[in-house]
Amino acid sequence: VNSMHDTYELLARKISFFKGVSPEDVAKIFAQGNVVEHEPAQMLFDKGDSGDSMYVILNGKVKIRDGVKQIAILQSGDIFGEMSLVNDAPRSATAITMTQSDLLVLSFNDILHNIAPNVAAQLLVNIIITLADRLRKANLENTEEL
After folding, report:
1. Helices 2-14, 23-32: crossing angle, 10 deg rounding
2. What angle do CA 81, 101, 128 make, to 5 degrees?
3. CB count, 10 Å around CB of 60?
4. What is the pLDDT of residues 46-73, one digit of tens each?
5. pLDDT greater than 90 at residue 9
């Protein structure tokens, strides 16, 4: 049991999505979610798909693209698909594994109904921070092109 506690403690420190969440609560989040192992070059979702889940990359690499344009390469510790948690719009991009990848899949329902409210609130704050960072980066890239 102690080694699992250490694992969750490590994840809580390494993954910004779990920032401010105790190892015990990280363990509960894992109990709610679903850890899935994917082979390289596997499409996780396609642009336009409906989606109600977000992903946390535990290890591996995932590329996010819009048509032929590569938007991002994400790796261990990164989250993606979180936009579907905040709006019902279809997926805005395609996600494909680049390497063998272990992903924690969490649905909005899991976060809202199966995780303690204070923990869910912290996770949502962490998602907002991630979105704000991505927006800031996108704005910087757009101003550099002008």
Report:
1. 90
2. 30
3. 18
4. 999 998 899 999 999 999 999 999 999 9
5. no
Q: Cβ–Cβ contacts within 10 Å for residue 133, how many? A: 11
Q: Give the span between the Cα atoms of 135 and 137, in whole angstroms.
A: 5
Tokens found for residue 57: 């990359």
pTM beyond 0.85: yes
Length, in residues, of the chain: 146
